[in-house]
């Protein structure tokens, strides 16, 4: 029974990493098209290269989040970490859209 829970947790983490990477790549490609292409005349960035660039940047810039505090339960840490991984790119896309309205 414990092995099944561990397996489910591992599958959940892998799924979250994949979803987060694709979401970050999508948001980067959209923001790139909104701001970098018209400003600098750069070529469009498709999702696959954007995923790679987002992974490189996140690898090179160490980022810690509040979900690592000791006073939180494991469930709270998972919930906060999941929210950060999913909401951070969506918030960036939202604010990018607002900026785009002023261009």
Summarize, please.
By secondary structure, this protein is an all-alpha fold. It has 3 helices and no strands. Helix 1 packs across helix 2.
Strand content: under 5%
Main sheet makeup: none
Structural Rg: 17 Å
Specify the number of helices: 3
Please count the beta strands (DSSP E, at least 2 residues each).
0
Shape: elongated
Q: What's the domain count? A: 1
Question: Can you walk me through this structure?
Answer:
The chain has 103 residues and is mainly α. It has one domain (2-101). It contains three helices and no strands. It has helices at 2-40, 47-60, 74-101. Helix 1 runs parallel beside helix 3 (74-101). The chain is elongated, with a radius of gyration of 17 Å. The protein starts with a helix and ends with a helix. The mean pLDDT is 87.
Write the layout of secondary structure elements.
Elements lengths: L1 H39 L6 H14 L13 H28 L2
Helix pairs in contact: 1-2, 1-3
Which descriptors apply to this entry?
mainly alpha; elongated; 79% helix; 3 helices; 103 residues; 0% strand
């Amino acid at each position: 029974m414990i092995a099944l829970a561990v397996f489910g947790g591992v599958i959940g983490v892998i799924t979250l990493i994949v979803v987060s990477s694709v979401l970050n790549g999508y948001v980067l490609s959209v923001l790139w098209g909104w701001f970098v292409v018209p400003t600098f005349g750069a070529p469009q960035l498709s999702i696959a290269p954007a995923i790679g660039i987002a992974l490189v940047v996140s690898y090179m810039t160490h980022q810690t989040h509040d979900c690592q505090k000791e006073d939180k339960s494991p469930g709270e840490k998972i919930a906060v970490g999941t929210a950060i991984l999913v909401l951070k790119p969506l918030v960036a896309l939202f604010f990018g859209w607002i900026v785009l309205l002023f261009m």
